[in-house]
Predict the structure of ROK family protein.
Amino acid sequence: MENELDVLRRWAAGPQPRALRASIVLEASLGRNNAEIARRLGASRQTVVTWRQRYAAEGPAGLDGRWRSGRPALVDEGEVVAESLLAPPDQRSSRSLGRRLGCSHTAVAAARRRWNLGRDELAAPAPPLNPPLGEGGIWVVGLLHEPAHTLVLLAQRTGSRPEPALIEIQPPADALAAVTTAFTRALAAPAAPFASPAVVAAFLAAARRAHPRASLHLVVLRGPAAPDFAEQCARAKVTAHQPPEHTGTVSFLRAVLALDAAQHPSSSARVLLDLATALRGPGTVRWIREPLPAAPGERPSGAAGPLHADGPLHAAMNAGGAGANQIDLGSFNECVVIETVRLAGAITRGDIAARTRLTQQSVSRITRSLLERGLLVEDRKRQSAGKPSGLVRLRDDAAHAMGIHIDPEVLTAVVVDLSGRIVARRVEKITPEQRPGAVVAQIAVLGESVLAGVGRQVRESSFLGLGVAVPGPVDTVSGTVLDPPLMSVLRDVPLRTLLERRFSCPILVEKDSIAAAVGERWIGRDRRSRDFVYLYLGTGVGTGLILNGDIYRGLTANAGEFGQLCAVVLGRVEPSGRPEVLPECNPASHVLVPDAAARRTQLSVHQAARAIGRGTLAVIDLLDVGLVVVGGPFCTGPAAEVYLTEIERAVNDFPTARRLRRVHVERSVSTHEAAAVGAASTLFHASFTPRLRRPGSP
C-alpha cells in the first residue's frame, strides 16, 4: 500500500488532470468525506465520488483517462511538435497530424504557431517558455533528473551557423524513442527529496565550463526549485524558465530533443543514445553534453595567432570556411565530367561524351566553364579525322587540402594538391601527455606549422579545408572520437569542435581506414576505378570499402572493423563473449625474423599475415570483390611481401567462389602517409565526386 501512496503523491505533484484525481484519493485516505474533499480541492461532489469509485475498483490504473469519442479538451503541444518533426515531409500538414493524434487540425496549427514551427522550414523554432527565449536555435545540453525533480538545460548562441531547413534533417526516431522510454521509466522510480543545493550548483558550474560561449537556459520541468535556486542560476549566468502550458513532462523533453536534432546535424543519434544510457543508470542523472561545434571564425582566447599574416592562405583560414565555396560545382553533370577526366588523366571532349553518354553540346559547355574557372587545362592538340582535338586534364593546383592522421604513436600532417602530390609534410611523435587537451593542442600546432610552411604555393581560392583521419570508432556527424582501443586519451573527445576553434575552415573527421581507401581511389585514378577492399596496416588493422563506385561508410560511418571480424573468423573471444583484440592485428608488435627469445614473446610477421589473410578471406566471401589493396605505414620493406603473399594465398585458395574469380592483391599507391593523404582526399571526394545512386534507392 505504501508504494501506491508514493505513486499517488507523485501524480498529485504532476500535470492535470491526473493530479486532481490522485489528490482526491489521497484526501480520502486521510478519512475526509466527499463534501470536505470537494471543498478543499475545488471540485464537484460528483467528480469526487466518480474517482473514488474508479480507484476502489481498479486501483491507480483507474485514475488514467479513458478514450471517448469526440475531440480531447486539451492537446499535448510537445507531442504535436515531436510528431511534426518525425513525420515524413508529405505527412506534416495539420490535418494529417490531427488525424494521427486524434485532435482537430486547428489545435495542431495553434500548437505549432506557439512553438514557432512552420510546416516546411523556419529559422528559429523554440518552446514557448516563461520568460520567453531570445532569437536563435536551441540545443539540449544538460539534464539533472531525480524521481521528483527534473531540470533541462538549453543553450542558444549568437553567430551560429545558418541552420538547414527542418525538412532536410530527419531526427533519429529510434534514438529519440530510446530516450523517451528511459525517461518514462525513470519518472516511475520511487520519489526522493530534491537534490542538495550543492548538486545543482555543481551541475550548473560544469555546464558553464563545457559551454562558455552559449546563452544557457534552465527549464524547471518538474518539482519545486531549491531555496537558493535563483542565486545559483545568477552565479552560473543561467536564465531560469518555467515549461510551457499544455505540455507534459515526457513530451517536452521529446519535443526539444527533436527540435535540436532537426536543426543541428551535430545532434546525432549518439548524443541521444548517450542521454538514454545516462537515464537508465541508478540514482541521480547528471548529464552534460560535449562542447558544441564552433561558430564560424570562433577562436578561443588562448588560440595561436595568425598562421602567416601576410599570405593569402591566412585569409582563407580565417574567412569562416569560405574557402570551400570558392569552387562551386553547378550540377551533377559537372561532377561526372570531372570524374571522367580524373580517371582518364587526359581525354578529348569526344571521348568524354562517349564515356558519359552526355551530348557533345553539353560536354563542350561544361568543359568550357571548367576551363574558364581554372579546374581544367587544355594540353597539346591531337589530330582526329583531320580536325585538331584538344586533350583536357585536371589542373593539379586547382584545389588543395590538408590532411592530418592521428595514430597512437605518431602524428602526420600533409598538404596535397588535386593530383594527390604532397606539397608539404611533417611527422612527429605524439605527446606522451595523457590529457586530451595536450594532444589536441599538439595536433593544432602541427597543422598550423605545415600551413605556414606552404606559404604562397597554395592560393586562397584553391584551399578546400582540413581532413582528419582518426582511429575508429568515430561519430563523423559531430566529429567525436569515441572508443579507440589503442588511444584512450581521445575517448569521447569532440575533436572537430576543438579544432574548429583553431582553424576557421571546413573540417571533416573520418575513420583512418576509410580515409585511406578514399585517398587510394582518388590518387589511383583508373587503376582504382573498380570496387576494391583497402586493407590498412597501421598500429591497428582496418578496412575501407569502395563499392558501387563510392566509399561505403555504413550506417554510422564505421564500416570496416577488421579486427573484430578477424577475431570472429579465428574463434578468438574473451570470456564475456566479446571478440578479442588480436595482437595479430597490431603490425607494430611483429618481428620479421625473431630470435629464440623473441619467438617466445612476440608474434612473427608470418603468423600475423596468416591471421590477417583469414580475416580478408571472410571479407572477400562476403562482398565478392576482385581486388584487395594493402597499404599503410607497416606495409613497407620485406614485411610487405610477406603480407601480400599470405593474403593472396588466402583469398584465392579458400573462398567458396574461387572457381569463378581470381582476386588480385596489390600494394597501395600511397606509402607511410596513406591515411593523411586520404584525409585530405576526403575534401576532394566530397567536392568533386558525383554522388552515385545506390541500388534500391529512389
Summary: The CA atoms of residues 521 and 527 lie 8 Å apart. Confidence is low (pLDDT under 50) at residues 161-165, 299-326, 692-698. DSSP finds 24 helices and 20 strands in the chain.
